Amino acid sequence: MKKIISTTNAPAPIGPYNQAVFAGDTLFVSGQIPLDPKTGELVSGDIAAETKMVMQNLEAILTEAGLTFENVVKSSIFLSDMNSFAQVNEVYGTFFNEETAPARETVEVANLPKFVNVEISMIAIK
Questions:
Q1: The overall pTM is greater than 0.85
Q2: Under-70 pLDDT residues of the chain
Q3: Could you tell me which residues come within 8 angstroms of residue 26 by beta carbon, excluding any fewer than 6 positions away?
């Protein structure tokens, strides 16, 4: 059985998908981009600020589901330029305890929605 998770504290989907879906005790969180849910505007120009916005959007969805970053078991990071990896990694790391951080991959892609520089998705468990 699946349960849809939705919050106004993260950007509304820009297509036919949901912010997150519980399947049993597993939460699948859709990729988040640096879209400010309060203004509807993209955060751009500084990869650290963009990454922070993405992580705040993810946090809002996790919170709505009754979870925290401690529940995350897998992350996927998509970058428009792998040269920004160190800056993204630095911001991303502030949201996790290094000893209990999730599994992860980071890949460079040709394009992302709205031509942003970073998108992150997650899988979490209760």
A1: yes
A2: none
A3: 123, 124, 125, 126
